[in-house]
Design brief:
This protein is mainly β. The chain has a single domain, classed as ApaG domain (Immunoglobulin-like, Sandwich), CATH 2.60.40. It is 0% helix and 59% strand. The chain has no helices and eight strands. Strands 3, 4, 5, 7 and 8 form a five-stranded antiparallel sheet that branches. The protein has a three-stranded antiparallel sheet with strand order 1-2-6, with no helix packed on it. β7 and β8 form a beta hairpin. The radius of gyration is 16 Å and the shape is elongated. The protein starts with 8 loop residues before the first strand and ends in a 6-residue tail after the last strand.
Length: 127
């Protein structure tokens, strides 16, 4: 068994366009995203910090770093998960987000859990 199987955090994301908070005429597109983080390794691990890379269609890149998620630093037992919803605003109807969570296992090992890049996309409206 290689070391990586001890530290395996699976991250999946669902997004939703928030029409009532968005203002396309003023280049304001608001999205909610729900992140599910599951510890698929065999060592408990705690989420310490987050690093997001948010990119809009104009190639404007915003990097966000911070402690924990939604004010928490969840500790995940093997096989357990944590889900939260947050939001972001971009200046174009389409963009992407991705990044990583910086984790520490109970044995003191620090590792990154990758957040696979996902799309932010305003639904196409038919007139």
């Amino acid at each position: 068994m290689n070391q990586d199987s001890h530290y395996n955090i699976n991250v999946s994301v669902q997004t939703q366009y928030l029409e009532e908070q968005s203002d396309p005429e003023n280049d304001r597109y608001v999205f909610a995203y729900t992140v599910t983080i599951v510890n698929e390794g065999d060592v408990p691990a705690k989420l310490l910090t987050r690093h997001w890379i948010i990119r809009d269609a104009n190639e404007k890149i915003e990097e966000v770093r911070g402690e924990g998620v939604i004010g928490e630093q969840p500790r995940l037992e093997p096989g357990r998960g944590f889900r939260y919803t947050s939001g972001t605003m971009i200046e174009t109807p389409v963009g992407t987000m991705g990044g990583s969570y910086q984790m520490v296992a109970d044995d003191g090992t620090r590792f990154d859990a990758e957040i696979p890049e996902f799309s932010l996309s305003m639904p196409r409206t038919l007139h």
